[in-house]
Amino acid sequence: MTIATMTGYSKVNQGLSGSSIALTNLHDVFYWLDIVVILVLMLFRKIKFDPRAVSHRVAFAFTSVALVVFGVNLAVAEMDRPQLLGRTFDRTYIVKYLGLDTFTAYDLVKTEHVNDMRKSATKSELEKVKKFTDSHYASPNVKMYGIAKGRNVIVIHLESFQQFLINLKVNGQEVTPFLNSLYKSKETYAFDNFFHQVGQGKTSDAENLLETSTFGLSQGSLFATLGSDNTFEAAPAILNQRAGYTSAVFHGNVASFWNRNNVYKNMGYQYFFDASYYDTSGDKSTGYGLKDKLLFKDSIKYLENLQQPFYVKYITVTNHFPFDLDSEDIPTRTLPPRTPGAPQSTITLSPPTTSIRRSRNSSPTSISRDWLRNQLSSCTGTTTGFPTAKTPPWPPCSVRMPTTGPTLTTPSSNGYR
Question: Model pTM?
Answer without folding.
Answer: 0.64
